[in-house]
């Protein structure tokens, strides 16, 4: 027989040494044990109760958390701007649709929930939707369609969307739901397209820009190398665009540029036309085009652009010069091809604008020569290679009234380089600022030393007006040399007024205020000499020598000279005629009441030593006649 260990212990504790059981003690021990047991049970019951309560609360909290999480998720799904739907995986019935979904499909969710695609969409669409659903359910693989046209719903017709569908399984792994999202990417795609367009197109004309041109040229070169084909690159430049811009203002200039670009693109017959900056364009011609065809097209472009353009009630006239280089004959890489097309363009412009020139290897030589000359020009000033020649200016009766200072460059190996050749180079690299200052100083110093107070005329380049502090340097030179400002005349061409017109005008006004005289040079050759006469009180007009040399040959020249003289007289501006070589020319000018003249008839440009008598060093006064 087995006995509970506690009872055995209680009996042992109630038994004395003789083996006698003390029943009273045993009853006490058993009673105490029962009481202890009751206390334990009560404690356990309480603990159990507390635990159950705690568990119930935890459960309730978990349920509430779950509910809140669901509500939170629901509100996110409801408010995201992406359409979200869920369907029953068995029959594609819609079980969930958010607000964005209603908008995409153009119908309220009540019209869709519980329904299959066949009950909602037209047949051909329902068929596609069902096929997609089956594919996802059968394969278990998600579906992703990018940038496609949404073909359902009201709003969907012109929207581009990214859409996804994926399968959700139940606890046992069986297909339960199909969840789909549809994101409207129309704006993003159109923005991306717009940004890419802007990056590759010129904002004013909407033609491809320089970077697009370089990319296309790179591709063309690669293709032409592989296929052994040839192609032509045209470098184009609008003639006189800057003048138009300046005379009519930038808004008209912009309209004109747009109109010219349209004409170019229209006439270019599908060739690739790009605007690569300012008034410069490039055209890439199709493969294997003949020289004759390229020439014909280029001439057509020159003619089209040369026609009058009516822009915003203004009639304006620009021209076009074109340089052409061929791959592979004139260059096998982009840099050489472009440089050679530019050389041809440079030649076209130099030969009188409105022309088309093919690249020739001698142009390459010319370009290198120009660079060499530019390099030598830098040394010329420090090595004293410049000289100032003086050419007398006289009244038409022959009385010398002053001299024009003309710069000469005595190159150590080339001899005398004509100013027409090196001054544009000095203007290109900015050296004209220092060189011009040197001429001014020499001319003023020389004139200040003459016993007779004759005037001295000095040419100023437009670059001197744009860069450097011309006013200060003239002021400084006058102080330094002691020449009276009224004896100095500066000759400017209309180029000075092109560009920053207001700045140039203010500068001229300040120079005039110092007492310096301002003459307008090359009158009649520019685009807008007449309009400039209105804007500034010039002290003298110089009629360009081209009109004087043609006086006898072309009757129009005589008419132009007469017209300029009568206009100048009306404005009370004295006129000096340039390039007077013959007595007949002088007589004509005298008859037409032209005040002054300059030319070989009076005297050639020379070192001042040749004219010492005229300036009063040896002879007080000398008359030409
Ligand atoms: N056929 C012919 N020509 C005559 C006659 N009389 C004078 N000439 C030439 O006509 C030019 C007159 O100078 P420009 O119109 O100011 O034209 C000047 C001027 O624009 C520019 N230039 C000369 N020196 C300077 C200068 O110091 N600074 C600047 N910025 N330009 C200068 O270079 C141009 C050419 O200068 P040059 O070669 O010295 O040429 C000079 C002169 O030698 C004549 O009867 N017949």
From TrEMBL:
Q: Which residues form a coiled coil?
A: 45-72
Q: Which CDD domains match?
A: EAL, GGDEF, PAS
- Tell me which residues make up the PAS domain: 69-148
What InterPro entries does the record tag this protein with?
Biofilm_reg_signaling, EAL_dom, EAL_sf, GGDEF_dom, Nucleotide_cyclase, PAS, PAS-assoc_C, PAS-like_dom_sf
Residues of the GGDEF domain: 229-361
Identify the domain of life.
Bacteria
Concerning Pfam families, the annotation shows:
EAL, GGDEF, PAS_4
Keyword terms, alphabetized? Coiled coil
SUPFAM superfamilies for this protein: EAL domain-like, Nucleotide cyclase, PYP-like sensor domain (PAS domain)
Domain named PAC: which ranges? 143-197
Could you tell me which residue ranges the EAL domain spans? Answer: 370-619
Stated name of the protein: Diguanylate cyclase (GGDEF)-like protein/PAS domain S-box-containing protein
Q: Which organism is it from?
A: Bradyrhizobium ottawaense
């Amino acid at each position: 027989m087995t006995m509970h260990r506690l009872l055995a212990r209680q009996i042992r504790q109630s038994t004395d040494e003789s083996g006698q059981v003390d029943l009273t003690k045993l009853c006490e021990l058993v009673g105490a044990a029962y009481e202890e047991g009751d206390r334990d049970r009560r404690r356990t019951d309480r603990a159990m109760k507390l635990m159950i309560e705690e568990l119930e609360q935890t459960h309730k909290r978990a349920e509430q958390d779950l509910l809140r999480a669901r509500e939170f998720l629901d509100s996110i799904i409801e408010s995201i701007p992406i359409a979200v739907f869920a369907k029953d995986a068995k029959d594609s019935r819609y079980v969930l649709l958010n607000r964005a979904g209603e908008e995409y499909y153009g119908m309220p969710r009540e019209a869709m929930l519980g329904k299959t695609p066949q009950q909602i969409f037209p047949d051909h669409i329902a068929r596609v939707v069902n096929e997609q659903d089956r594919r996802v359910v059968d394969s278990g693989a998600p579906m992703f369609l990018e940038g496609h046209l949404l073909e359902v719903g009201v709003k969907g017709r012109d929207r581009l969307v990214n859409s996804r569908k994926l399968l959700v399984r139940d606890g046992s792994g069986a297909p339960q739901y199909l969840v789909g999202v549809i994101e409207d990417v129309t704006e993003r795609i159109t923005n991306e397209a717009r940004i890419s367009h802007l990056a590759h197109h010129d904002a004013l004309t909407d033609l491809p820009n320089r970077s697009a041109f370089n990319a296309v040229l790179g591709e063309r070169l690669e293709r032409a190398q592989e296929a052994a084909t040839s192609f032509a690159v045209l470098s184009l430049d609008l003639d006189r665009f800057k003048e138009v811009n300046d005379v009519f203002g930038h808004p008209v200039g912009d309209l004109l540029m747009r109109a010219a670009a349209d004409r170019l693109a229209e006439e270019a017959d599908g060739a690739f036309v790009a605007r690569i900056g300012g008034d410069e364009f490039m055209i890439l011609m199709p493969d294997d085009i003949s020289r004759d065809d390229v020439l014909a097209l280029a001439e057509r472009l020159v003619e089209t652009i040369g026609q009058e353009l009516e822009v915003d009630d203004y009639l304006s006239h620009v021209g076009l010069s074109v340089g052409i280089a061929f791959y592979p004959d004139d260059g096998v890489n982009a840099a050489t091809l472009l440089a050679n097309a530019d050389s041809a363009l440079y030649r076209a412009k130099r030969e009188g604008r409105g022309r088309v020139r093919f690249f020739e290897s001698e142009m390459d030589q010319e370009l290198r020569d120009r660079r060499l000359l530019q390099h030598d020009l830098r040394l010329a000033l420090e090595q004293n290679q410049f000289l100032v020649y003086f050419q007398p200016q006289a009244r038409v009766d022959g009385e010398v009234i002053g001299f024009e200072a003309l710069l000469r460059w005595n190159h150590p190996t080339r001899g005398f380089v004509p100013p027409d050749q090196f001054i544009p180079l000095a203007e290109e690299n900015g050296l004209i600022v220092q060189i011009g200052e040197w001429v001014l100083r020499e001319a003023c110093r020389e004139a200040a030393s003459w016993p007779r107070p004759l005037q001295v005329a000095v040419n100023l380049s437009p670059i001197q007006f744009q860069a450097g502090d011309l006013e200060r340097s003239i002021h400084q030179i006058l102080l330094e040399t002691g020449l009276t400002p009224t004896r100095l005349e500066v000759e400017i061409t209309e180029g000075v007024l092109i560009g920053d017109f207001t700045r140039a005008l203010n500068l001229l006004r300040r120079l005039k205020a110092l007492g310096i005289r301002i003459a307008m040079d090359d009158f009649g050759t520019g685009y807008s000499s007449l309009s400039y006469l209105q804007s500034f009180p010039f002290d003298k007009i110089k009629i360009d020598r081209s009109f004087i040399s043609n006086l006898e040959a072309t009757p129009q020249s005589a008419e132009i000279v007469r017209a300029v003289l009568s206009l100048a007289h009306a404005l009370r501006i004295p006129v000096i005629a340039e390039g007077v070589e013959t007595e007949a020319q002088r007589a004509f000018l005298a008859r037409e009441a032209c005040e002054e003249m300059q030319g070989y008839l009076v005297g050639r440009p020379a070192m001042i030593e040749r004219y010492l008598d005229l300036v009063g060093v040896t002879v007080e006064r000398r008359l030409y006649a």
